[in-house]
């Protein structure tokens, strides 16, 4: 019982429910391993007792929790001794003008009788029975004070304190406390909006894997110039409101022995984009190359054209490493051109703004060039980003570190240009960036942020009806206790960086804001357990950063979802993800029927398919079953799979026919693709996404889960119905694409959505 209580106190589940009415106990050694990753020794009965005593002692002695989160209508959970004095240091170090009228602007006309403003910008005063008296409440900033007469009772906060805290401007402030016995404490205070921003208009747009979108100017894979062109064209010509792309996170660089992992969901860093996405010719200094540098740049352009043609005309796969080899050499040449004064000033501003995070990322990249990307094998103490050896390495690698900082800046400027092109084309949202669920254990983030990742653990999924062995994704999880101790700073910084040039953010496996399945290193996924996160804090930090960026938030909530999670996400303004084939009524008896359009939730991004699922043409024709059969992925005989698939497709075609959405009749694949999108547009979904390959009849999935080298995951260009790769210019001219998108634009014109909330998305 002691170990179970210790686990519960640290958010570690000792059982889980893979199906209704069935509970599975977590192995004891798994619980011990997970607690150890959280810094808690539970290996013996004695260590358990000592850990419980330490926990109880900390709870008894501390004044404030590691982090305090407040939002309108949600009180912070505090329990303080009577007579405790409180102060708040605003994030910007000065009183904020917001909220004065609502808070009553309690201020003395003359000198303060009690409390006052300090040089740091912190304020204090007296708080009696939850009402601020004799102190200062300026601009809605809480003037901390003396807590009397049971203001805090059983962890509940008096209305007066809640009102004052909620009147603070949204931000990451600092709460200070001093008890009558002299004890002092401080804690990060996150003041968050209650909901995420929502777009005031219903919108439609494309979903695309950027690498697959090659134009006649690409260097072998889609780039940020192609993204800007797609956004500008689809916004102006089709009335699209957004373009959703795959994660552009920096990848772990390849080596001769191990090519770069092409998956965008297993990155080195989520904090910085990968410069492989740069359009080299759009770097201003490129035009100023002269002499031999210009001659070599022209040769690289010819090599890039050959690489592009091999993909678009000769059936070659996208080769990320080959693309980067050409671009890296070209960028080394471009870097010899001095920056203009204005460009130099902009670069310096970027360095100052991104600070330590950028310096760490760039240093990791420089060290990986010398020692390889596996940082745990680096010599001279370099595995520790704060060691004396690493300090020396920073001085020794200044030039290469600056090179990688410069690459990050160039990529940031081109992302800004793509979002600007989208907004200038009339898009209400623009770019929708994608946040992967984790990072590669050998990458830059895992090196620089070791204190907030759980060592020896991996994120995955428990066994379920679809996968009896569970899943291990090989990504280290956040430590919830370490995040709280930092005021969720690493998480907030991550979100802030991703939202710099975005109108919306998609969060992969959004259920991970509530809990994640941890798998100890060396164990099977079946031997993992759930670890809980403070969802109020995680959602609060997300709401804060989304509010600052004016960005919509979309949660990928497919698959097994804990009861209550979707409801809470909806309350907080996080849009869900609804895929047509999965939207069924599972509450009735018998087979689950497809939901009627009017039964769909409104707060969602509605799509027919995703990057992990068959294309719509492959689904309608059964090609996806044949592909999985050829690769040995079927769990039952081919005839059974074919029959089950045919029944499902026939059921959906029947629904479409009864609704009058398939006037062309059965047997016409292109008409059926139009019909399923007509169906989506009948739903109340706030966002409707069209998988760009679907618009031209592409039958190949971009990723086939369960495969590694058996299938070219993440390496295919968009192709037509015959499998012929298509350039961006050919896509734009495709009659099939225009016919589909003309209907989408007609049925989903730009206009207000009912019951939309304030906070139009922005992002530069």
From TrEMBL:
It comes from Streptomyces iranensis. This is 4-alpha-glucanotransferase. The keyword Glycosyltransferase applies. Keywords: Carbohydrate metabolism, Glycosyltransferase, Transferase. It catalyses: Transfers a segment of a (1->4)-alpha-D-glucan to a new position in an acceptor, which may be glucose or a (1->4)-alpha-D-glucan. It is an enzyme of class 2 (transferase). Transmembrane segments: none annotated. InterPro entries: GH, Glyco_hydro_77. Its EC number is 2.4.1.25. Pfam families: Glyco_hydro_77.
């Amino acid at each position: 019982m002691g170990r179970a209580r210790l686990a519960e106190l640290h958010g570690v589940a000792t059982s889980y429910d893979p199906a209704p009415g069935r509970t599975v106990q977590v192995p004891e050694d798994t619980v011990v391993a997970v607690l150890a990753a959280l810094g808690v020794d539970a290996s013996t009965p004695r260590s358990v007792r000592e850990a419980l005593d330490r926990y109880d002692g900390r709870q008894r002695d501390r004044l404030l929790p590691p982090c305090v989160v407040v939002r309108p209508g949600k009180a912070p959970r505090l329990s303080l001794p009577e007579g405790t004095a409180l102060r708040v240091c605003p994030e910007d170090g000065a009183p904020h003008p917001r909220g004065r009228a609502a808070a009553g602007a309690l201020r003395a006309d003359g000198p303060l009788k009690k409390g006052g403003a300090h040089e740091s910008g912190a304020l204090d005063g007296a708080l009696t029975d939850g009402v601020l008296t004799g102190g200062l409440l300026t601009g809605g900033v809480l003037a901390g004070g003396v807590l009397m007469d049971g203001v805090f009772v059983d962890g509940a906060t008096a209305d007066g304190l809640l009102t004052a805290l909620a009147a603070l401007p949204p931000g990451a402030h600092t709460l200070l406390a001093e008890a009558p016995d002299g004890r002092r404490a401080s804690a990060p205070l996150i003041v968050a909006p209650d909901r995420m921003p929502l777009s005031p208009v219903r919108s439609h747009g494309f979903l695309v894997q950027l690498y697959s979108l090659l134009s006649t100017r690409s260097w072998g894979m889609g780039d940020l110039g192609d993204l800007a062109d797609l956004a500008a064209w689809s916004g102006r010509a089709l009335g699209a409101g957004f373009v959703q792309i795959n994660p552009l996170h920096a990848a772990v660089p390849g080596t001769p022995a191990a090519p770069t992992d092409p998956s965008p969901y297993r990155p080195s860093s989520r904090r910085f984009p990968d410069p492989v996405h740069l359009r080299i010719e759009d770097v201003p200094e490129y035009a100023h190359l002269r002499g031999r540098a210009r001659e070599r740049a022209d040769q690289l352009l010819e090599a890039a054209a050959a690489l592009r043609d091999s993909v678009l005309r000769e059936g070659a796969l996208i080769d990320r490493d080959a693309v980067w080899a050409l671009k890296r050499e070209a960028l080394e040449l471009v870097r010899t051109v001095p920056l203009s004064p204005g460009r130099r000033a902009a670069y310096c501003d970027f360095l100052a703004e991104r600070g330590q995070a950028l310096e760490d990322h760039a240093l990791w990249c420089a060290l990986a060039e010398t020692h390889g990307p596996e940082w745990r094998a680096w010599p001279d103490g370099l595995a520790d980003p704060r060691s004396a050896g690493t300090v020396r390495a920073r001085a020794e690698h200044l030039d290469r570190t600056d090179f990688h900082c410069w690459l990050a800046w160039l990529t940031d400027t081109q992302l800004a240009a793509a979002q600007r092109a989208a907004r200038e084309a009339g898009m209400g949202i623009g770019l929708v960036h994608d946040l992967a669920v984790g990072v590669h254990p050998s990458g830059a983030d895992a090196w620089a942020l070791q204190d907030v990742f759980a060592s020896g653990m991996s994120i995955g999924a428990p066994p379920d009806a679809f996968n009896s062995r569970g899943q291990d994704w090989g990504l280290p999880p956040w430590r919830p206790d370490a995040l709280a101790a930092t005021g969720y700073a690493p998480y907030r910084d991550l979100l802030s960086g991703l939202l710099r040039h975005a109108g919306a953010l998609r969060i992969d496996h959004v259920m991970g804001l509530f809990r994640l399945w941890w798998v100890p290193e060396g164990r099977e996924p079946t031997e993992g357990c759930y670890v809980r996160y403070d969802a109020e804090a995680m959602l609060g930090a997300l709401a804060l950063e989304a509010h600052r960026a004016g960005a919509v938030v979309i949660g990928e909530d497919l698959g097994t979802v804990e009861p209550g999670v979707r409801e809470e996400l909806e309350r907080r303004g996080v849009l869900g993800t609804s895929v047509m084939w999965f939207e069924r009524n599972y509450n009735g008896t018998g087979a689950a029927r497809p939901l009627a359009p009017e039964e769909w939730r409104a707060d969602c991004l509605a799509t027919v398919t995703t990057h992990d699922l068959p294309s719509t043409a492959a689904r309608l024709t059964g090609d996806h079953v044949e592909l999985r059969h050829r690769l040995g992925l079927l769990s039952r005989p081919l005839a059974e799979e074919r029959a089950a698939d045919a029944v499902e497709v026939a059921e959906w075609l029947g629904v479409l026919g009864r609704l009058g959405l398939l006037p062309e009749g059965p047997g016409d694949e292109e008409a059926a693709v139009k019909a399923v999108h007509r169906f989506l547009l009948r739903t109340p979904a706030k966002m409707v996404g069209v998988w760009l390959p679907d618009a031209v009849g592409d039958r190949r999935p971009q990723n086939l889960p369960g495969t590694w080298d058996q299938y070219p995951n993440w390496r295919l260009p968009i192709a037509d119905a015959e499998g012929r790769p298509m350039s961006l210019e050919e896509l734009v001219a495709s009659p099939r694409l225009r016919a589909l998108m003309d209907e989408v634009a007609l049925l989903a014109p730009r206009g207000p959505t009912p019951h939309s909330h304030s906070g139009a998305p922005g992002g530069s």
